[in-house]
Amino acid sequence: MQADLEPITIGGSSGDEVSLLEILDHVLNSGVVLHGSLVISLAGVDLVYLGLNVILTSVETALRNLEAGGVIEKRASK
Amino acid sequence: MSRVLPYCAYLERDGLTLPHSGVEKSPVAVVQSGSVRLLWSEIPWPFQPEHLQQNAVEFHDVVHHVFRQTAVIPFRLLSTFEDAGLLKRFVAEHQVAMAADLDRLASYVQMESVIYTIAERPGPAASGTEYLRARAQQAGTIREHAERLSAAVADVGAEVRLRENKNGIRLFALVNRGAEHGFHDAITGVAVPNGVSRRISGPWPAAEFMSEEVKMPALVTRNE
């Protein structure tokens, strides 16, 4: 079933520059949720569910800024 | 201090290549139970906020290394287990459900389109009623466009779902591997209304279409 998957990321105001934020959004916001284990720690400070929401909100804010034409670091599509 | 970070689960088959390193350049290991294999790394803990962007790309690269070859169940960055023993118990307890999802989704990938408004907000002089009316009109335009897109991709998507969020609507389609450009063509064939923008992205692992048992599994607890 080997297939050559070509990433498609287009649209919005910044073309391919959306790739990195799409990646951030997916690795943080898509996939198995280990509920009950969402005790995460950043910089030595334990955060629980609320903390994760704060991170996700930051990503959403970044996406909105991108949609408004903000500049983000570019990562070439593979 | 370290923790165990799971990347993704997949079904074992001949010929798969695996990544050697993952987040923070940690070696990638495999835990197996039945036909299910799960990639993980022991990583430095806690996460450093200044590394989050790099860690996200490293995590994505591991998952997509396998996803390019076969269906995967992705985990989320920042979700960790205390040690490898707990991870092994978790895989053993959920391997039947994971194998069923991986088998069901084996020939599919997930394509997405995010639809959002670019219309300016009503000015400060607008009354509350005018503001609410403008917002309702924007929401209606987005919803109508999302429904047109949903109809447009119906022929290329085995299943299509719409999910509203505060910025707009996200469309998820379960598409046959290799038919990604059919989704792209179907979306771009629909004109974008004024005041609306959209992005297309994919292919991604079919996380939106995983069963609830796999998406939100009951967590194993440590035996004291």
Report what the structure shows.
The complex is a heterodimer of chains A (78) and B (224). Chain A has 78 residues and is α+β, with helices and mostly antiparallel strands. Chain A contains two helices and three strands; from the N terminus they run βαββα. A two-stranded antiparallel ribbon of chain A has the order 2-3. In chain A, strand 2 (40-42) and strand 3 (45-47) form a beta hairpin. In chain A, helix 1 packs antiparallel against helix 2. Chain A is globular. Chain B has two domains: 2-104, no CATH class; 108-209, 2-Layer Sandwich (Alpha-Beta Plaits). With 224 residues, chain B is an alpha+beta fold. Chain B contains five helices and eight strands. In chain B, the strands form two sheets. In chain B, strands 2-3-1-4 form a four-stranded antiparallel sheet. Chain B has helices at residues 52-67, 84-104, 128-152, 180-188, 212-215; strands at residues 2-11, 29-33, 36-44, 73-74, 108-117, 157-165, 168-176, 196-204. In chain B, a hairpin with a 2-residue loop joins strand 2 and strand 3. At the A-B interface, strand 1, helix 1, strand 2 and helix 2 of A face helix 1, strand 4, strand 5, helix 4 and strand 8 of B.
Describe the protein's topology:
The complex is a heterodimer of chains A (78) and B (224).
Chain A: E1 8-11, H1 19-29, E2 40-42, E3 45-47, H2 49-67
Antiparallel strand pairs in A: 2-3
Helix pairs in contact in A: 1-2
Chain B: E1 2-11, E2 29-33, E3 36-44, H1 52-67, E4 73-74, H2 84-104, E5 108-117, H3 128-152, E6 157-165, E7 168-176, H4 180-188, E8 196-204, H5 212-215
Antiparallel strand pairs in B: 1-3, 1-4, 2-3, 5-7, 5-8, 6-7
Order of strands across the biggest sheet of chain B? Answer: 2-3-1-4
- Total of DSSP H or I helical runs spanning 4+ residues of chain B: 5
How far is it from the N-terminal to the C-terminal residue of chain A, by CA? 20 Å
Strand order of the largest sheet of chain A: 2-3
Please describe the biggest sheet of chain B, giving its number of strands, its sense, and whether it closes into a barrel. Answer: 4 strands, antiparallel
**Number of strand elements of chain A:** 3
Shape of chain B: globular
What Rg of chain B, in angstroms, do the CA atoms define? 21 Å
